[in-house]
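Final paragraph of the annual report: two paired records, presented back to back.
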Amino acid sequence: MRFTTAMLADSAQVQNGKLYVLGGGFNVIRAKTLPTVHAQLFLALVAEVEPEERQRDLDFIIKLMDEDGHEAGVEARGKLRVGLPTNLPPGEMSVVPLVTPFHNISFEKAKGYSFVVSMDDRELTRIRFRVTVDS
């Protein structure tokens, strides 16, 4: 599995196999003061799943890390299972949109952060962003 798309969004959802994103593709969260709590943040992802990865559970984990490589205490675990496609030629990859919401994330410092998506201890993608304070 690999990700062809990975972004932060204000809102996102998957319907009928398509990814719908509102306010996506940013890399700065602006706060008035610190610490701050960001009420709602979505990760919008599009995965390509190889034929040999179908018909089995693909366990992945998403962790929020700071720019110093420390875990920031936010984590999500997911399980993806892709069935056999009926409309693709043999050997073709399956494209699967995914959305992961995060609520009430607390940021103590103005600095860089990343959501790191991994599977089997292998990093698949990293979504980098920065928290800043408006002055």
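The closing record of the year follows.
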Amino acid sequence: MRILLVEDSPMNSTFFQAVLEPEGHEVTVEVTGTAGRERALTEPFDLIVLDIVLPGLRGDAVCKELKATGLRTPLIALTASALPEQMAVVQAAGFDECLIKPIAPEDLRSVVRRYAHSGSS
């Protein structure tokens, strides 16, 4: 799968790549919401993972904008907060799913496998 990860933390980006690339996934990283939005609109991806708190443009705003263009690629939120108000932001933006940091490697693999087998590409 081609996965776009929009995450400003180098540690988290390295984690995603270390967990997913050995399984044959291609992980492309952008570090700002604006750059992630542009990449998502100009290249085909099978899955897009957006951190919520990003420089430039928040992940929830990116999600709304991508959905408004008709993009059908599954969008996964990535957040460190499981508070009800944060979950409301994720739901209102239209994300398909949400991952809460810190993420266990097997949980990450499981979510990616689920979308890989959904025929989303």
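The radius of gyration is 13 Å. This concludes the annual technical report; the extension proposal builds directly on these records.
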